[in-house]
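Sequence in, structure out.
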Amino acid sequence: MNTITAEWIKLRTLRSTWWAIGIGVIISLALTALGASTVISRWSPGQTPDQAAMGIVVAVYVGVILAQLPLGMLGTMTITTEHASGMINVTFIATPSRTRVLLAKASVLSGAAISASLLIAVPGYLFGRFVAADFHPSLLPPQVWPVIGGGTLMIVVTTLLGLALGAILRNGAVATAALVAIVLMLPFAARMLPWGEAINQFLPTYPALQLIKQAPNIMPTWAAFTVLAGWAVVPLVIGAIAGRRSSHGS
């Protein structure tokens, strides 16, 4: 718990934390409001209350995942700036277990990512209900929960993937470039290949888009959640192993 507290203090005292969260939230909120207004204006009068509620939540979580890259970059900066300044050595003197430090950073970053998603989702949802008032949307029907879970998981996964890449590569620019390549460039590149659809199933973007109803269902919902979560868990495990080897080699 002391390690988590220390990492939280470091995270909240960094200017980059508030810049990343602020930029991600403001841009996503603006685009969410614009997108929700546009989508709802095109609805047919026959929308049921449950369909209206689903449409609002989908529009909101399309906006939420737009904040993933600023938060992913925050994940890389959280550890690479410490490597660049040499402060990571002070951290490891206070907490010799590098795995424990990495998990503490992952915990506070997960909290930051979830908080950012709520700062986007709650106002976006209330705005969507206001714009769609004529359709009398229901509150939160059961079918919206995979969308909420998928959108929230995507923003957390991207943040933790940034952290893991920073731990493995130890260079902010290189880690950020790798993050952008995995999240944005690889899915587009894969589409140009004959077997691209099969590859995209195992990248983080497609399962997330499937969960928020922006891509066809090509896998069961549980599989989409598993693949998406794997993009946080596996890189963090690799980062922890790399940290242990580095400590033994130093």
